[in-house]
Design a protein that fits this description.
It is built from six helices and six strands. By secondary structure, it is of the alpha/beta class. The protein folds into two domains: 141 residues, Rossmann fold, CATH 3.40.50.1970; 40 residues. A six-stranded mixed sheet has the order 1-3-2-4-5-6, with helices on both faces. It is globular and about 75 Å long. The relative contact order is 0.13.
Length: 203
């Protein structure tokens, strides 16, 4: 495995504090894991979405094929360590999300990471075609931002002060999306009307 990108922290152990984001006083609620550090340019969008909601998370490389024992340990102990959601990204023969889902009681969100060939369709089909009883919530190819937003919704669906806080932020986020869409509609209508006024009338 190549050396990790300096833009994020990859810990030698899933429980290393060096991989935690959100402040040292905050225990991570979301685990963001990937098969290789080369997946980070895609997976960082999940982290950025969680940052918007102030949700603490950890980041790590947990390869299903190159470190299977560590992968199993990560999944088995994730809930005991306080995680509530796992976001797992992988490319090619993307077994990581499904294998984690088979050994954890937590919800797992799978992110298909596109590689040089097949444009990520191999990753998507590897993740989405899970057998009955082992669910993985799969987002679109390279859809890590939606994975982060879905993790935020899962946390917001719980109880307690943190869930209430996240729900309020999600409501504000959705209202902002609506305002942006309405503004785009208004701008489009104004542009069309302006063009209609400047065009010479026929006949």
């Amino acid at each position: 495995m190549s050396e990790p990108n300096e833009e994020y922290a990859v810990s030698a152990s899933p429980t290393s504090e060096g991989s935690i984001r959100g402040g040292p006083e905050l225990a991570p609620l979301v685990g963001i894991v990937m098969g290789s550090d080369s997946d980070w340019p895609v997976m960082r969008r999940a982290a950025e979405a969680l940052d918007e909601f102030g949700i603490a998370y950890e980041v790590d490389v947990v390869s299903a094929h190159r470190m299977p024992r560590e992968m199993v340990a990560y999944g088995e102990h994730a809930a005991d360590r306080g995680l509530q959601v796992i976001i797992a990204g992988a490319g090619g023969a993307a077994h990581l999300p499904g294998m984690l889902a088979s050994v954890t009681v937590l919800p797992v969100i799978g992110v298909p990471v596109p590689l040089a060939y097949l444009d990520g369709m191999d990753s998507l089909l590897s993740i989405v075609q899970m057998p009955a009883g082992v669910p993985v919530a799969t987002v679109s190819i390279a859809g890590a931002r939606n994975a982060g937003l879905l993790a935020a919704r899962i946390i917001g669906a719980g109880s307690g002060a943190e869930a209430t806080r996240v729900r309020a932020l999600m409501a504000a986020f959705q209202a902002d999306l609506s305002d942006q869409a309405k503004a785009k509609g208004a701008a489009l209508r104004a542009n069309v009307e302006s063009q209609a006024r400047t065009q010479p009338s026929g006949g």
